[in-house]
């Protein structure tokens, strides 16, 4: 029996409300060996007050030493073993914008980038161009034609867009073309099996035509391809946990992930305040709320320590509005760490705080990396967070006689 079979057997219906607040990339590192992390540096009076009521620890998104992408990071938080259930980023992006992936489709998450005259990447995100700038460029790529393949190109947000290939014999076992570095050329797509090699051949043809179509652009004069993915088969959140779940996110990828596990996407918020408005408006219709805050991740990826501190403080300032709704269980965590020191996702355990009337408080007075290391939850795998949430909400019955 796996954990999902167990929760199906044990879940109990009641009127409790669970809020999972995910500050994407929350964990960080000090700027210097003697310094403090972004979370330790931030003014966080509301989170610290919650820490005195709650229990905290450090969650491991996948396994010790493994730096997760956003997909595996969130799957773990939702209680799905990210090693067993693997979702490519392309499927998340496509589903997040409402694209109906069919059997055999291969979706790719693409980033506009800037190349120099020698074809080397000088900016992996084309200066984070606006959605208004990138949308027409994505539409231009609909002019690509490849015999025997149906191609869909859809804008997403800022420098991101989605490409979907539809045709016989395609597979998603293809390596990314983003080298995750500047000063080097984009990589060639390489397939890892027969179906993947067919997709890689199609991708190479697409990239060649895209380079010609974008050549004259000052910033977004090329693009990379990441997360080649087919539609996954996942058990539904309601079936596994007995919860009517709502997802409140700004970025399409996180909506896509929530949709793939059967959450209902609610609202069309563009700011944190609007997200909390949506939370309040949908409060009576759902039992579980996934509230996603992106900007602790993007500022970390930009290497902007001070900006990440400000975003953490913004999140802290929003906590009283969430608390006024009186959730039975409130969890504050991240899907992974994104230290601005590293400018990317990292393997470091993620600060996690759980508050309920029946948790066992660990008497810590603050919430940050140093306290989480000493917290009552200890170091634990993120995939166990959902059973902790259910237990604290009184939604799990006793196991065995």
Helix content: 25-40%
Q: How many strand units? A: 13
What fraction of the residues are assigned to beta strands by DSSP? 15-25%
How would you name the CATH homologous superfamily of the largest domain? Alkaline Phosphatase, subunit A
Number of helices: 14
Structural class: alpha/beta
- By CATH, the architecture of the largest domain is named 3-Layer(aba) Sandwich
The CATH class of the largest domain turns out to be Alpha Beta
**What fold name goes in the CATH topology slot of the largest domain?**
Alkaline Phosphatase, subunit A
Radius of gyration from the CA trace? 21 Å
Structural account:
There is one protein chain. The protein is α/β, with parallel strands linked by helices and 401 residues long. The chain has two domains: 244 residues, 3-Layer(aba) Sandwich (Alkaline Phosphatase, subunit A); 132 residues, Alpha-Beta Plaits (2-Layer Sandwich). It is 33% helix and 19% strand. The protein contains 14 helices and 13 strands. It has an eight-stranded mixed sheet, sandwiched between helices. Strands 3, 4, 5, 6 and 7 form a five-stranded antiparallel sheet that branches. Strand 5 and strand 6 form a beta hairpin. Helix 5 crosses helix 9 and helix 10 runs parallel beside helix 12. The protein is globular. The mean pLDDT is 96.
What's the helix and strand layout?
Layout: H1 3-10, E1 18-23, H2 38-41, H3 45-53, E2 55-60, H4 70-77, H5 89-96, E3 106-115, E4 121-123, H6 131-140, E5 150-157, E6 160-166, H7 194-214, E7 222-229, H8 237-241, E8 245-248, H9 252-260, E9 264-265, H10 272-281, E10 288-293, H11 295-301, H12 305-323, E11 329-333, E12 350-356, H13 369-374, E13 378-381, H14 385-392
Parallel strand pairs: 1-10, 1-11, 2-13, 8-9, 8-10
Antiparallel strand pairs: 2-12, 3-4, 3-6, 3-7, 5-6, 11-12
